[in-house]
Backbone:
């Protein structure tokens, strides 16, 4: 189930993992305060002042799925290499620095 459209990262209160929430699910969860992540987990958001958690790998794989198999093996290797690079960047993106007030 690849996500169509935009998604928003949201850190869960209980596990501290940063999940991707599709815009439709973000709007649907506003009344209850619980949001369904792209990976299927129901997330209760942490406080906005909390540091971002480690990214959910299942959400990252759903937001940017692996490329389909191509007829040309060289083209498939290039596509997979680019996908793995994007996946690693998304899963290991730098965190916001803590600001001392």
Residues:
């Amino acid at each position: 189930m690849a996500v169509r459209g935009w998604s928003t990262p949201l850190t869960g209160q209980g596990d501290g993992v940063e999940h991707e929430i599709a815009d439709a699910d973000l709007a649907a969860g506003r009344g209850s305060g619980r949001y369904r992540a792209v990976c299927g987990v129901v997330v209760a958001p942490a406080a906005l002042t909390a540091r971002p958690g480690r990214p959910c790998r299942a959400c990252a794989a759903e937001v940017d799925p692996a490329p389909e198999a191509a007829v040309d093996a060289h083209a498939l290797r290039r596509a997979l290499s680019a996908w793995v690079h994007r996946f690693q960047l998304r899963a290991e993106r730098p965190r916001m620095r803590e600001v001392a007030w």
Remarks:
- The chain has three helices and five strands.
- The CA atoms of residues 9 and 26 lie 10 Å apart.
- Helices lie at 23-28, 57-63, 73-91.
- The chain has a mean pLDDT of 77.
